[in-house]
Each structure stands twice: as C-alpha cells, then as structure tokens.
Design goal:
Blueprint (H helix, E strand, L loop, with lengths): L26 H7 L5 H27 L6 E5 L6 E6 L2 E5 L4 H10 L1 H9 L12 H17 L7 H24 L4 H10 L1 H30 L1 H4 L3 E6 L8 H7 L7 H4 E5 L7 H22 L4 H8 L6 H31 L5
Helix pairs in contact: 2-12, 3-8, 4-5, 5-6, 6-7, 6-8, 8-10, 12-13
Length: 352
C-alpha cells in the first residue's frame, strides 16, 4: 500500500484511501438535513406551495388596497375622548374633537378606581404597610387637584360633585393612614357615598363627548359629500373591555347610512395601543373589504359560507360544528329514545 507523509481531505491519515464517514453520521441529523430526499415530502411541499403563493398574493392585494380605501374614519380611544382621523382621497386629517371637560370629569370620577388600584394587593392583608407610601403620594395628587378645582371653570354641578368625590377619598385615605389599616367595608362605604357624584361626572363626560363627536362628524360629512359618505367605513380601535357598546361607536352610528351601518362600523379590539393606529385600522379594513368581494365570487352557490368569509366567523366553523354536533346529537337522541322506552316499559301494568 502506498503511503504519504501527509493526507488529502476525506482520506485516512497517512494514506490516499477514502474514509467511509457515512457510518459516523447520526441518522436523525441526516433525516433532518436531507429534507428534499423523501418523495412524499417533495410532493406535499409542492401542494403547500399553493397555499403559500395564495397568501402572498392575497397579502399583496391587501397592501395595495390600503392605498385606495376612502372615505374612512379611524377612531383611537384615549383619555381625551378619542383621536379621530379622516382618510379621504389620499389625505388625512386628525383631531381630538371632544372638549377638555370630558377628561376633567372622568379624571375625578376615576378617583375610587385609583384608590382601589393601590389597595388591591393588600385586600387580604390590610395590616401590612406596603400600601401606605403610594397612598400618601396619591393623597398628595388628590389634594393638589382639590385646591385647583375652583379655578378650573367647571359647571357648578360638576364642581360640586367633583368636590364631594375628592372630599370622600381624602377622608377615607386619611383615616386609613392614621390607623395604619383599612377594611373592605370602609372602602365600600366611601365608594357608596360618592356614587351619585360619580354619576354626575359621568353625565358631564358623556355630554361633552356627544357634542364633540357630533360636531366633527357633521363637518366631515359636509367635507366628504353625501354621495361618498354613503360608503363611509369607520374603524374604532379599543381594548376588549370597551369594545361592546363603545362610547364612540354609539355616537358615530347615528351618522351612518342605516342600510350599511352594521357592516361599515367596525369595532376592532386590540391587546394594546398600536404603534400606528391608522395603519392597523386600514390593514384590517383592507382585509375585510377584499373578503367581502371574494366571498360573493368564490362561493356564489352557498350564501352561508360566503357570509362566513365576509364576517368574523371562521370559514371552517360551519363544517366543524356539523362534524362535532351530528355524532353527539345522534348519540343523545339514541340515549333519550332508550330512556323513554325504558320508562314506558316500567309504566306498563304488570300481568296478574
């Protein structure tokens, strides 16, 4: 056998003979790396590619459609009553239409909630003192607001109700800090006493919001024109807890065409405030609009399935419900029939 002082890659050291390294490869590693070797996988991947391309094309349609959506109003709920953005013929106008009275009234109405947030972790251990420092800081915030109430130019009834709420909160907080403890009963006594005042603040907040939203909707309706207004979409972004009977949606709906209001007013709950609320709204709306058209053209012979594609319902929901419900209903029907037969048998008179 010929030998050399060195060796070449893939040979036994000191020789020119090739090694059989295949036996050293982990079979599982080889299986994962050689992913195109299995003919079944190649076949299935070719089929999967259909769905990948469909999604790519659908996404491309949506991305371009965003630029053609008009007119659209996007509402981002916030502490000021909502940021309204009109998207019309490629231009945008954003405004907070609600007066400061809305936020002023709600700020004081939220005092019991703010107090609760500090005490909640200690509801089962109120003798602990972890709540005292944040509660003192909260009390300072409330006293500062209390001192400025008279100069805030509030309506007399709102001034009186806000004063009662702050007085009640400061009284409860002062007692808790002095004793070094609190009870749930003491807290609910405080919140119960100020409830009517909270309702007064809610009245003024609602009144301010209605006035502001109605004003901007009238102005934008005139700007857009009646013909285009008929096709207006409104997307209201909110958190889940305010997505049903949302305050802005209630006011807006009266300005929409009754024939399309239910489908053109879209409440879109979000987990958190989007970085770009307008894009988030338009991105979702583009999907809705193209689904509306696709549904009627792709499923022209089945309106139930078409409606599923157009709405919130998953396209497979009807089929899944059918497959899950029918076997269950059949088993239940058989069981009920058997039980009924047994009961009938028991009720028959016995032979003498």
């Amino acid at each position: 056998m010929a030998t050399t002082l060195g060796s070449t890659p893939g040979t036994t050291p000191g020789t020119t003979e090739p090694n059989d390294h295949a036996k050293d490869i982990d079979p599982h590693d080889e299986e994962m790396v050689a992913y195109w070797s299995d003919p079944t996988k190649r076949t299935r991947n070719a089929i999967f590619a259909v769905n990948v391309d469909m999604r790519r094309n659908y996404a491309a349609l949506k991305a371009e459609l965003i630029n053609h959506l008009t007119p659209v109003i996007v509402v981002q709920n916030d502490s000021q009553g909502g940021l309204y953005t009109l998207v019309h013929n490629g231009e945008r106008e954003a405004v907070h239409p609600v007066s400061e009275l809305f936020e002023l009234a709600k700020s004081i109405a939220h005092v019991p909630l703010g107090t609760f947030a500090i005490l909640a972790p200690y509801l089962k251990g109120p003798d602990a003192n972890g709540w005292s420092r944040p509660l003192k800081h909260w009390a300072h915030t409330l006293r500062t607001a209390h001192a400025e109430l008279a100069g805030a130019d509030l309506p007399p009834a709102l001034l009186a109700s806000s004063t009662r709420i702050l007085d009640g909160a400061l009284g409860f907080i002062g007692g808790a800090l002095e004793r070094g403890s609190f009870s749930i009963e003491e807290f609910t006594d405080f919140t119960g006493d100020v409830y009517e005042s909270i309702r007064t603040n809610m009245y003024f907040a609602a009144k301010a919001q209605i006035a502001g939203v109605e004003s901007i909707m009238r102005r934008w309706r005139q700007k857009v024109g009646e013909e285009q207004w008929k096709g207006l979409y409104v997307v209201v972004l909110s958190i889940w807890t305010t997505s049903v009977l949302n305050q802005n949606s209630i006011i807006i709906k009266q300005f929409l065409d009754p024939a399309t209001a239910d489908s053109h007013l879209i409440d879109l709950p979000t987990g958190e405030t989007p970085a770009d609320p307008v894009f988030t709204a338009l991105d979702n709306l583009a999907r809705i609009v193209q689904d509306n058209v696709a549904a009627e053209l792709v499923f022209p012979v089945d309106q139930v399935i078409a409606d599923a594609l157009k709405g919130k319902q998953d396209l497979l929901s009807e089929e899944i419900q059918t497959q899950l419900a029918c076997p269950f209903q059949s088993k239940r029907a058989a069981r009920d029939a058997a039980q009924g037969a047994a009961a009938t048998e028991d009720d028959r008179p016995q032979a003498a």
